[in-house]
Amino acid sequence: MAEIHVHRLQPKHLNLIRSIAELGQLSLAAQELALTQPAASRMLGEIERYVGSPIFVRTPKGMEPTAVGSALARRAQNVLEEMREAAREVEAIQRGLTGKVRIGAVTGGAVGYVVPAIRALKAEASTVDIHVDVAPSGEMIRDLLSGQYDFVLGRIPAGIDARQFHVDGATMEEVEIVVHRSHPLVNVDRLNISDMAHFPWVMQAPGTPLRQAVENVFIEEGAPIPRNIVNTTSLLVMIAMLASSNAIAPMSREVADLLCRQTPVGDLTTLKLDTPIEVTPYHLITLSGKRLSPIAARLRELLLSRFLSRGR
């Protein structure tokens, strides 16, 4: 029995096997691979020596694969496709068009900036693995410091040394008051914050920037701070509460636009408040000295361009 050295087959051999199997003629295979017919014939002989048996037989209809040839042709097709896929993957990695990115964002920033940036990145690299968390800034900064995020869109909490971070941009978060369309205050023009004090509220926990901004308006207007409050960071809980009660929920303008105007959800609308509510600015924050992967750097670039242009 002849020795078998299939492991010595190279991509050029596999290409010839595939081409002969597909075209049925050595001359056509040689032409497809830019070989002379004698060179293709010599290469076929080399393949058969490595394999230890004929892989094609000549018939009136052309070259037909033997059982060994059929097996090799099938394997060759698979191997060549894997090699092409490997080449595409390597190129994508080198160009920063594949990999994993994990980021965090405050709610308004996620809707207004992160989602459009992700859409733009997916148009360039559809297979990139992106993880987005929406959470309070304190949690995100803690996780950024521990290496769980590539970057975040949020605020640096008091007591955290800002010198640890590279900070870009600054955008105010405008707040709108969201209610169900059946709410008693819906048709009232120029509402004062005091008009809302005795209704139930659903909003973020005490100490969060949005909650502080709302409470500050009550204090500035000399109105009592609401006491009937459900505390949650869950947008779904907020929507459910609004849909089934006269509750009031303060939300970032981007989220209110999404829920009440762009893709109306649960018959929600916004109230007309005579005093604007603004939350302290948030930023694009990266850990100083952190080297981002090419794909993370690309998403950050797309996000930053939108953030800076709209934050002006």
UniProtKB/TrEMBL annotation:
It comes from the Bacteria. This is LysR family transcriptional regulator. Signal peptide: none annotated. Residues 9-66 form the HTH lysR-type domain. Keywords: DNA-binding, Transcription, Transcription regulation. Belongs to the LysR transcriptional regulatory family.
